[in-house]
Specification:
The chain has 2 helices and 5 strands; from the N terminus they run αβββββα. By secondary structure, it is an alpha+beta fold.
Length: about 100
């Protein structure tokens, strides 16, 4: 991990949080003392969903499923640079 990655991770989550907030979704940016920041959003049915951002071969991506579901579900992420990332996450979270 480079020294710049924590700042990139935070800025991606902050931008997504603002985009989700503008869609009327209740969000909280959680920045723990140790560990990585995470964005908590509440779906339309009231369940809390934790969105994280990770670096992959294609760049930064948002993922919103538990770690164990990422092992068998490959469609639970969207590129962080996508202009419609918030729309995709809301649609998937409420499906």
């Amino acid at each position: 991990m480079t020294a710049r990655e924590p700042y990139e991770r935070f800025s991606h989550l902050a931008r997504l949080g603002w985009d989700l907030h503008s869609l009327g979704i209740r969000v909280s940016l959680v920045v723990p003392v140790t560990g990585q920041p995470v964005l908590e959003m509440h779906s339309m049915n009231g369940t809390a969903i934790r969105v994280t951002v990770i670096r992959r071969y294609c760049g930064w991506v948002f993922t919103w499923r538990p770690w164990w579901s990422r092992l068998w579900r490959r469609d639970t992420w969207v590129l962080a640079d996508a202009t419609n990332a918030a729309d995709i996450i809301v649609a998937e979270a409420n499906a």
